[in-house]
Amino acid sequence: MVPYIALFIGVVLFSFLIWGIYKLAKRIRRKKEVEVEPEPPKIIIPADVIALEKLQKLKTEEKWFTTDSKGYITELTDILREYIFNRWEFDAQESTSEEILSGDFILKIDHAHLEKLKEILSTADFVKFAKANTSTDENKLMLDRAFLFVEMTAVSDPSNDNNN
To answer: pTM of the prediction?
Structure first.
């Protein structure tokens, strides 16, 4: 009887040993399988492309043909402020028109293009704070100036975006 008990205990111990080796091998294999995949590269859309798309949307929706000058002007200047931030990393969203026009990035802009921006921002201030209204012709002209400003200050080489 004792040899049968010893044989039974031996088989049970051998089974536990085989089971332990199996579990250990499975755990090691699972650790090897969990490899971190590299993140796909983020597609960076140039600032001018984003701004031009938004301006085009404003144009196609004919928002310039409105009686709500303040709403239209606010939307137009928000697009330009976002463009300035994305293009030159200048926080234009939280800046006044005067602060924008005295920012360091202004030195990198041609005088003719800077005049377009000044005209837009001064008209926007007049509409927003003096509660003036603009005509549809003035609204269309401001939209055209915004298009020109973005197109003329766009970077041809995206890898050199913040340096120009």
So the answer is: 0.69
